[in-house]
From TrEMBL:
<dbReference type="InterPro" id="IPR013813">
    <property type="entry name" value="Endoribo_LPSP/chorism_mut-like"/>
</dbReference>
<protein>
    <submittedName>
        <fullName>RidA family protein</fullName>
    </submittedName>
</protein>
<feature type="domain" description="Endoribonuclease L-PSP/chorismate mutase-like">
    <location>
        <begin position="6"/>
        <end position="146"/>
    </location>
</feature>
<dbReference type="InterPro" id="IPR035959">
    <property type="entry name" value="RutC-like_sf"/>
</dbReference>
<dbReference type="Pfam" id="PF14588">
    <property type="entry name" value="YjgF_endoribonc"/>
</dbReference>
Amino acid sequence: MSTIDARLRELGIALPEAAAPVANYVAFARTGNTVHVSGQIAFGPDGLMTGRVGDEVDLATAQKAARLCAINLIAQFKAACEGDLDRVVRVVKLGGFVNADPGFTDVPKVINGASDLMVDVFGEAGRHARSAVGCSVLPLNAAVEVDAVIEVQ
């Protein structure tokens, strides 16, 4: 078992299977040691977390949705690393998108749900650059979507 797999187990996180793309794109694209991972929505065991944050969805629930996006990203990282998460050298960047009510201004706080998990799982290697953007709508009315760039061995 890899060090990162052990850390996930300590945190009580079971990774899902990496989601297959649903349109004309790939789940991740590697060039050299850099992997760009397509956006992952907040889909988990209870289904998709949907709704407009600041209206139908509160901040705490939206942060949980961002964390779920991060779990789905880590599943993609594992697929990109042929099952060995210890090959992740660094989480370089996260791009966070929040299905936000026009008056909702805590978009960065929502994406903290994903950022915090990356540091919890990968330690210093999980610290990353980031964008946090409010959107008028996301695919399938998802509450949150997060994409990533990672460096791998």
